[in-house]
Amino acid sequence: MPVTTHFRRPPQTADDPDTPEPTALPPLKARLARLTRPARWRAWRARYPRAALAARRTTTVLAAVLVLGALLLPNTLVALEPNRFARIPAEAVIGAVLLLCLPRVPRLVLAALFGVGLGVLTVLNLLDMGFTEYLGRGFNVVLDWGLLDDARSYVADSMGGAAATGAAVGAVVGVLVLLVLMALAAVRLGELLAAHRERAARGALLAATVWMTCVALGVQTFGVPVATRSASGALEAQAHRVVDTLRDEAAFAKEAKADRFGATPGAQLVPDLRGKDVIFTFIESYGRSAIEDPVMAPGVGRTLDTSTKALAEAGYRARSGWLTSATYGGSSWLGHSTFMSGLWVDNQQRYRTVTAGDHLTLTKAFEKTGEWDTVGVMPGVQKAWPEAEWYGLDKVYDAFDVGYRGPKFSWSTMPDQYALEAFQRLEHGRERDRPLMAEIILTSSHQPWAPIPELVGWDEIGDGSVFDGIEESGEEAADVIADSARSKEEYGKSVEYSVTSLTQWLERYGTDDTVLVFLGDHEPITRVTGDRTSRDVPVSIVAKDPKVLDAIADWNWTEGLEPAQDAPVWKMSSFRDRFLTAYGSTPHPTKD
């Protein structure tokens, strides 16, 4: 049997050069760095148990606040009050029961999807808040995504490109962060329920019992029901909105094909206005509130009274009434197309449908006669505008066609006074073989109503450079936007400016054959109007020829530029047919 010899290494000494240096135990931070993330977290919890417990509890509380806040969040700013969050959401009880019944992997998936769904619902509720505040209606998931780009453009025009880019990037990042946080919060709560399954099951049963009892007895706290299903109700409302939108699309396409004057020959359209220069002018955001609100009414009322007297001295008479606009707070093109087409165009799908067809517009009726030159002055248009053909406009002057070299006034590309003077120089003041029909959009009263132009001498306007100093000394848009009281005041001033510019132009350049029809396109945003539910806008017809106003005597409109409070109120879509009829047009309907 072989002999095995064992050698034992002699003990090393400090003098031995091969003896390794003694090393101290690495600090906690160094040790944690060498561990995986879960192991790192466990090591940290073991070393700092109280801090770990506090972190867990804080995370759980924040997760519960996020989830419950999303479930109870209303979709209007008016309803955003503390009492809304002192309720029991049915969705939380149902969600807890479902998560308790599932094994781990399906539970994690369902919790994450539930959290993402809550994030999406929160975004929709926030969009509803914004749209209700600015447009007087909720967000439409089918139609309104394009309006978000319009909102970015508005911010860029009002506050600069950097602010618009920052707001857009911030919104996208905010939505992504919200979705992730909601998913993590739901997963956190789901794991907590699973870790304490028996107690969680008893709690869910108790919550369900309390919820049903509160529903049966109608229990309320702070004026609102304790039991609620607001989250599922909000989703149902969005679903109904989608279904209604899709149904409306088909119904409106059929409606747009039927036209009372669609087949009327040109010779039988507006014969009683032959030889007249007819000018349709929209004043941005000129609504009933400007005339009746206690803050704006005194200044606007004085302006209308002064302008009525000045026009009377120049030989003009006016009659005024009310029209109910199809839009509110914005989307002016919906008001324009409703007024001109005689159809109720209250959303973007209807607008696309009607402008893609051949429904007769009021302006196109003049073109169809062959007796008028038809032009549009659109200082707010800064890109291609194919709708000009549908409106029947032979020539359109946009923001770049009128020779303006002055400053922008926030969103408005130029002062109304300049736009009107340019119209006079380019079209109305020219020698021509036949009369003129014009559609003019005045934009100086567009929000944010800062800075507002000031009137200058008409002979001083030139290329618009005279407005440089006025713009520089005006109010800052950001200051006015943030202050509701100042928004009201500046809005009123902007309407005074627009009305005065228009009536002074008529005094200066109008003739015996000039007929002016002017109106607001919609009410301003709720920051200005408050909780008013009216969508009414003033409308006036001004002329020297008494026959023009005699033709609408049975309309019972108020004499002057300010309609009486009890003056007739019509839907804006009814104006086209009334106007065509009043001035001698013969109906020849087309059918769907």
From TrEMBL:
Q: Where is this region: Disordered?
A: 1-25
InterPro entries from the entry?
Alkaline_phosphatase_core_sf
Query: Keywords for this entry?
Result: Membrane, Transmembrane, Transmembrane helix
Q: Which residues cross the membrane?
A: 54-73, 85-102, 109-127, 162-187, 199-219
Q: Which domain of life is it from?
A: Bacteria
Gene3D superfamilies (UniProt xref): Alkaline Phosphatase, subunit A
Q: Indicate whether Transferase appears among the record's keywords.
A: no
Name of the protein in its database record:
CDP-alcohol phosphatidyltransferase
List the source organism. Streptomyces thinghirensis
